[in-house]
Specification:
By secondary structure, this protein is mostly helical. The chain has seven helices and no strands.
């Protein structure tokens, strides 16, 4: 597969599309299955962007561009803004990008805290998504 910026754009949109589809259509996809598929996909995405030929830093930033935007919106709406001041549309959409990593985020977060804190679990899901991409990116950089 040719590694073009257009294909890269499609790749970074797939987690968002998944989150939108699952949320809007209320599809019941087993979380572990979703995590396994998207974990492998996001690892591969890291490899793709490492080998895209746009320079390592640029490839890493392009691959995480929508992740960073979504994470920033999530942080703004759930960390920096009180519940009464949230913009519901932004808050809802900021949760879609990491939806496929909620299973892993929950498992990792529960290692450190036995209570359920949705915002913290989502932050952990975002972090795990970044870690999986980064591992794939490093793997792709070394194997190039």
């Amino acid at each position: 597969m040719q590694r073009t910026p257009q294909r890269g754009l499609i790749i970074v949109l797939i987690p968002l599309a998944y989150g939108l589809i699952v949320n809007r259509l209320m599809l019941l996809i087993p979380p572990l299955l979703s995590q396994l598929v998207f974990g492998a996909f996001w690892f591969w995405a890291g490899v793709f962007f490492a080998q895209m030929g746009a320079g390592k830093l640029r490839g890493f930033l392009l691959g995480n561009s929508l992740w960073a935007l979504s994470f920033g919106l999530f942080t703004w709406q759930f960390i920096l803004t009180g519940a009464e001041d949230r913009v519901i549309g932004i808050a809802v959409h900021a949760q879609h990008y990491m939806a496929s990593f909620l299973w892993l985020g929950t498992r990792i977060y529960r290692l450190f805290d036995s209570t359920i804190h949705g915002t913290n679990i989502m932050l952990t899901a975002y972090a795990s998504m970044l870690v999986v991409f980064t591992i794939g990116f490093i793997w792709g950089s070394v194997r190039q």
